[in-house]
Amino acid sequence: MAEHIIGFSLGFIMDLIIGDPYNIPHPIRLIGSLIGWLDKALLNTEKGKTSQRFRGFLMWIIVTGLTVTVTGAILFGAYKINKFLGIAIEAILTCYILATKSLNDESMKVYKALKTGSIEDSRKAVSMIVGRDTNNLDAAGVAKAAVETVAENTSDGVIAPLIYTCIGGPVLGMLYKAINTMDSMVGYHNDRYENFGFFAAKADDVVNFIPARLSALLMILATVIAGNDFSTKRAFRIFRRDRYNHKSPNSAQTESVCAGALGVRLAGDASYFGKVVKKPYIGNDYRQIEAEDIKRINRLMYTTAILAFAICLAVLGILR
Predict the structure, then answer these.
(1) Is 102 strand, coil or helix?
(2) How many whole angstroms separate alpha carbon 55 and alpha carbon 42?
(3) What is the model's pTM?
(4) Is the pLDDT of residue 229 over 70?
(5) In a 10 Å sphere around its CB, with 0-12 CB exposed, 13-18 middle and 19+ buried, how is residue 217 labelled?
(6) What's the confidence (pLDDT) of residue 6?
(7) CA-CA distances (angstroms) from residue 243 to 134, 223, 253, 280?
(8) Are 111 and 146 in contact (CB under 8 A)?
(9) How crowded is residue 96: how many other Cβ atoms within 10 Å of its Cβ?
């Protein structure tokens, strides 16, 4: 347990300071490559609903099985050689699992483009972190898309993997990331993935159900200490009212807190691959969203992450 606490703590700190390295192999990108290969190998849209769902389930089993096996073998081997090597490997894997600094860095590229670049630069920057069409977004639309991305990913990119890694080390953390990555790649409600991605989407809903709600509650608590830019009262009120204003039972949990805390309106209709998708709004437009809100939501994300980490450490300390 002591080794896990040290490795977990070092990994969290490394993620805050270093983030994801771009120039060396990343295990999550390798998982994504495996999913992409299996997508091409197994998906056959000419097959019936049952066959497509079975093929999607087979992909899920292969990806999760390999992820757990490889991660477990690396960690076990490292600790078998030397406990200090084991701690180092656990810290590195934990850093890979979390995405706090990466979310901040990518969204701040959008902020910088809005402040110093053209609208085309801003659209290009935000297109790197969202799945929607960005060609027709104005400055407010670009800022809103970036804020929504950070708000939603505070849960599945930071708090949820932090919780799972706390509970089961990098093995459980990587398993969560594999499930989440599959959902982000094939869990779409469209002609191609409606059935093939069915199990991936449902599994992601299950593993995020509790973490999404814990993330929202932690984010509400974070508004108390993150500064005067945030309203705790509004955050809680909009959370209660709008936390299910999304097809996914989990995605609007933290997004509703963010909308209320900042006093802006998020979500609404969006275009995907040239097709407008109707979505309900989240929050009230007490004011127009602006580029500075990207900096504000990142500050709220960091505060939420540190609160979650402190609670995880306290739980691990008690269990020890």
Answers:
(1) helix
(2) 6
(3) 0.92
(4) yes
(5) middle
(6) 95
(7) 25, 17, 5, 11
(8) yes
(9) 22
Element (H, E) at 259: helix 251-262
Nearest to 18 by CA among 126, 125, 99: 99
Whole-Å CA distances, 217 to 146, 187, 223, 239: 21, 26, 10, 9
pLDDT tier at 88, thresholds 50, 70, 90: very high
Distance (Å, whole) CA 266 – CA 259: 6
Tokens 């990343």 sit at which residue?
26
What span, in angstroms and rounded, lies between the C-alpha atoms of 142 and 110? 8
Whose structure tokens read 């994801």?
20
Q: How far apart are CA 284 and CA 288, in angstroms?
A: 10
Alpha-carbon dihedral sign for residues 78, 80, 81, 84:
positive
Q: How confident is the model at residue 319, as a pLDDT?
A: 80
Q: Which DSSP helix (H) or strand (E) runs through 160?
A: helix 160-186
Q: What is the DSSP letter of 1?
A: -
Residue 76: CB partners within 8 Å, gap ≥ 6? none
Please say whether the beta carbons of 62 and 208 come within 8 A. no
| Strand (E) or helix (H) holding 271 | strand 270-272
Alpha helical stretches, state H, the chain? 2-17, 27-42, 49-81, 83-97, 100-116, 119-127, 139-153, 160-186, 198-225, 232-242, 251-262, 292-319
Fill in the amino acid letter for 173: G
Residue 3 Cα to chain centre, angstroms: 27
Q: Which residues contact 51 (CB under 8 A, 6 or more apart)?
A: 44
Q: What percent of the chain has pLDDT over 70?
A: 98
DSSP string, 112-169: HHHHHS-HHHHHHHHHTT-SS--TT--HHHHHHHHHHHHHHHIIIIIIHHHHHHHHHH
